[in-house]
Amino acid sequence: MYEVEVKVRADHDEIRNRLEELGASPLGKVTQEDFYYNAPHRDFAETDEALRVRREAGEEETVEVVTYKGPLVEEESKTRKEHETVVGDGDTVDALLSALGFDATETVHKERERFEFEGYVVTLDSVTGLGEFVEVEAEAEEGDVESVREGAYDVLLELNLDPDEQVRTSYLGLLLSDTGE
After folding, report:
1. CA–CA dist 168, 79 (Å, integer)
2. What average pLDDT does the chain have?
3. pLDDT on residue 178
4. Is 171 considered catalytic here?
5. Beta partners for 135?
6. 43 Cβ contact list (under 8 Å, min separation 6)
């Protein structure tokens, strides 16, 4: 399965109002802490891969998920092959990864507000140290990546956002670059 994602910088108040006008369905708010790791046998920054443990706290529960993201598969979006699974204890996964030689590199903290609109998840992200972003994403089979990406662009346009202004760098990459640009 591929995660097709487009992300742009945007003012959340304007986008939230536009989502309401369009009849988007609110999916709730969460706080996420993403703990990233680098492999002992290759540099994920060079290979454009990511391994993280995410702690997501919502109103009712906290969930921890381990995710591996492969390198970007196209120039037009942040589409990646992704594998993830819920784990019972992120601290134990951290100890396991450390024992295997994986190095903890950075933590990304964000507040997320999610909406469903036309089959896509629209996320308003406030990322510590970086500011406000809007992500539009959906999952796709390999042969459907292009049409799902085009649909994500259409959602951005409905939100009065320009797909040509998308940011293809991950939040981790933006934080590590120290520019936030």
Report:
1. 9
2. 93
3. 66
4. no
5. 7, 123
6. none
From 2, 36, 153, 171, active-site residue: 36
- 16 burial type by CB count under 10 A (0-12 exposed, 13-18 middle, 19+ buried): middle
pTM of the entire predicted model? 0.88
Question: What whole-number distance in Å separates Cα of residue 147 and Cα of residue 154?
Answer: 11
What pLDDT is stored for residue 59 in this prediction? Answer: 86
* Measured distance CA(72)–CA(74) in Å, rounded: 6
Q: Cα(156)–Cα(153) distance, rounded to whole angstroms?
A: 5
Mean of the pLDDT values across residues 88-109? 95
Task: List the structure tokens of 83.
Answer: 């594998």
> Which residue carries 């969930």 as its tokens?
63
* Size of the chain in residues: 181
Q: So what's the pLDDT on residue 176? A: 86
